[in-house]
Amino acid sequence: MKVKQVGDPREIEVEIMVRDGATVRARIDGIDVVAQLEPLADGAAILQIADRRVRISGARTRNSILVAAGPASFEFVPVEGRAGTSRHGLAAPEVTAPMPGKILKLLVTEGDNVEHGQALAVLEAMKMETTLYAESAAVVKKIRVGVGDMVDHGAVIIEFSPAPADLSKRESPAPDA
Amino acid sequence: MRVQSIVGVECRPPGAYGRLPQNVKPRTIKKLLVANRGEIALRIIRSARMLGIKTVAVYSEADAGAAHVAAADEAHLIGPPDPASSYLNIDAIIGAASATAADAIHPGYGFLSERPEFASATEAHGMIFVGPPAAVMAALGDKVAARRIAMDAGVPVVPGLDTADAGDLATARGFADRTGFPVLVKAAAGGGGRGMRVVNEAAGLAAALEAAAREAQAAFGDGRIFLEKYLARPRHIEIQLLGDHHGNVVALGERECSIQRRHQKLIEESPAPGLSASMRDRMIEAALKLARAAGYRNAGTAEFLVDGDNFYFLEINARLQVEHPVTELRFGCDLVAEQLCIAAGERVAQLAAPRGAAIECRINAEDAAHDFRPAIGRVIKLNLPAGPGVRIDTHLGVGAEVSPYYDSLIAKLICYGADREQSRARMVEALGEFSLLGINNTAAFLRDVVASPAFARADLSTRFLDENFPHWTAAGGDLTAALIAAAMVAAGNLDSGRVGAGAAAANAARNEGGAGKRTPWTELAGFELWGRR
């Protein structure tokens, strides 16, 4: 299966090839990994790769897989083959809330042409302000929220249509958006 | 033994309590309302119980199932999840205290802990406020007034625009041009780095002033800001203070809090590595001078920036600090119990000289690999560290929820050792043992920081994380293990949520479809490890 971490564009292919008793053979981005698995009574397990032992636990949510590997925590989402991330030169067809919070400011209005990296909205979450930026040039098609609205993680804030002059050019996402 | 370096004003020998000054009536605390939540509410409840004091918890609708509610003798609902309607709602909290016949209120840290109007409202209702007097808090809580107190006491301060009207662009611009960029914009009220901004050039000044004022207004209800010269690579070192009703003020050594991210402390330790005895004595002397000049009472902390052989007063935090446990471990004391005893009119305890070294790591519900964005969720599985010299202060348990309403601190891990290296080694091991499924958190990041050569060398400054960990990602080994675990979860061969009943129910709620329904995962799995094929 192909996954990526929430908030990280990098896609990683992982397959369990064989499981034979305690031995698990996996292939991660084409590289074979052999691990020893010891299930624990509490639902977690110890995974040993070479001489490194890591306590792992995992569970599924509606649209992600949560994993703890030692002190490190991960949230993976599936990369679906059919839904490309680039359509008509848009790095993303919409801007979604990266975390639950309150819309503090909307910096664009419907019909605006926005540039790659342009500030779109300010979200307040856990008492911090986070600015959301355009990942490519685009036209603001629809704004789905108002100032003061509480939004959930993943809620659509702004919908885009492609920038008129720039249909073919795909820009890379802002590094810190 | 004379403990000159830690005790500023001589304490009476133990037992020689004498008569209280005429203006101090000894009062007994029988029932304490804890006006806070999370780990600190639990922490305060524990000390109160040890002293035989009954406890009242207050909670918002989001915290009905929280640990502090269960731990207290009584609990009182004070309002909706939004902090302004609950944990910041003075009327609701005073009302809860009256309704439960509490005779004292402990504010913890954050929330109302540094709001003089809360202290006065508490006293006005005939209850003891466990903290400094309202007037002292008002003077110290205003950073501009606090700077004035420091300057009058002869304590050095960072060059700054010594008026609260730095909001005026022309005045601010004039100061910045005179001092030279970068300058630091700060909120006059509050603390914890909120409303703070570094401005590198004149072009950014107006926007920074506006944003800082807005954040300060939102966070503290006070939009006043001020300006300071920005020191490029300072250390942040603070002195713990305790003052009583009898004019005694003592200092309990220092804490180094240089490991910060955007002015939020992440790792604190004591003693401050490499701090010379003479420098420590000078800082303690300055802290005691400040406390006496301000008429300080109860627990407080004088914060300084240290730049080479110079130190500059930053502010006094008129409350218990998040990082108080590092001092407790070195002095073998209980600062919350001290606060309660002092509030009841007792003298500050005579404390032995500090021993060993302690380090605290703040584990936050944040995604350290992705710009520390806040994380929320429910604890599905939790493995807490243990062992010699390991202490963990947390309100988390399986099933506990981290909501978006409150700050992201979920656990404090504190390790003690005979010396810094032993406490550091224990911290690396303890963080390695910590494992939390369900909420993204910073434990692995902290482990990598504490294990790093730069931290081991104690090459510390407030720029430490920018210099050494600008873009942290999880170690390759952890990612590999996590990917294998994820593939096993997708294939239905690992479900750590099934064991804990509460967590399983919570998990099922998040996993709306339940078994049998086609989800992206059942389609992706495509391969069963143990299945009937």
Give the SSE map.
The complex is a heterodimer of chains A (177) and B (533).
Chain A: E1 2-5, E2 11-20, E3 23-28, E4 31-39, E5 45-49, E6 52-60, E7 65-69, E8 72-78, E9 94-96, E10 101-106, E11 113-114, E12 119-125, E13 128-133, E14 138-143, E15 150-151, E16 156-162
Antiparallel strand pairs in A: 1-2, 1-8, 2-3, 3-4, 4-5, 5-6, 6-7, 7-8, 9-16, 10-12, 10-15, 11-14, 12-13, 14-16
Chain B: E1 31-34, H1 38-50, E2 54-60, H2 67-71, E3 74-79, H3 90-99, E4 104-106, H4 116-124, E5 128-129, H5 134-141, H6 143-152, E6 160-161, H7 169-179, E7 183-187, E8 197-199, H8 205-220, E9 225-229, E10 235-243, E11 249-261, E12 264-270, H9 277-294, E13 298-307, E14 310-317, H10 324-331, H11 335-343, E15 357-364, E16 366-367, E17 373-374, E18 377-378, E19 381-383, E20 390-394, E21 401-402, E22 409-417, H12 420-433, E23 435-437, H13 443-451, H14 453-456, H15 464-468, H16 476-490, H17 501-510, H18 520-525
Parallel strand pairs in B: 1-2, 1-4, 2-3, 4-5
Antiparallel strand pairs in B: 6-9, 7-8, 7-9, 10-11, 10-13, 11-12, 12-15, 13-14, 15-22, 16-17, 18-21, 19-23, 20-22
Helix pairs in contact in B: 4-5, 12-13
